[in-house]
Specification:
217 residues; 4 helices
Length: 217
Amino acid sequence: MKQDVKERAAPDSMVPDAGVPAAAETEAMVPPVPGIGAHLRRIRKERGYPLTRLAEAAGVSIGLISQIERGLTSPSVRSLRQICGALGLPLSSVFQTTELPQPTDGGRVIRPVARRILDLSYKGVIKQMLTPADPSTLEMMFVHVAPGGSSGPDYYTHRGIECGMVMAGQLELWVDQERHLLEQNDSFRFHSDIPHRFANPGRIEAVVLWVTSTVGA
């Protein structure tokens, strides 16, 4: 049954560990995701951003970014989007970048073995990118959400429009603090600048075909 229920920059070496990030940044107690921190640090260095500038632009603490870069903690989906956005990167840029088969047919076709992965299994979420790695205004992915898994307790926003369809299981989707319970074959669409988050309240894995676009946003 469906339900809609209202419901000045110091060098990096001089930056203190900062201990546990602020309470709103809930990443400190979760295990690190391999590779993401090193990738973000490399991009930040290439762009010439000191930690203080990136933290201010992303709206997160210096300590959190420092811990992520050193592999001591992992970002939530919300913080990852904010950091990527401040660096001018799409979220898909942090998907798995190990050696994978190249896209075929002029880069227009992605075979299953060539899908890039963003493993956020500490949150019960794994994303499989279904579109090429080149910059685009349109991205499509499978989002796998384990029972009890979620995007995190915080709402997040970003530029764009997104839509999707629940292929299996159930998905709780909160948009502007309104809760929607989606069942298999239900679909959705909303503007991404509206605060949102998601979770799986069911007993089996939820699989969602999820599409984001910045066209018309």
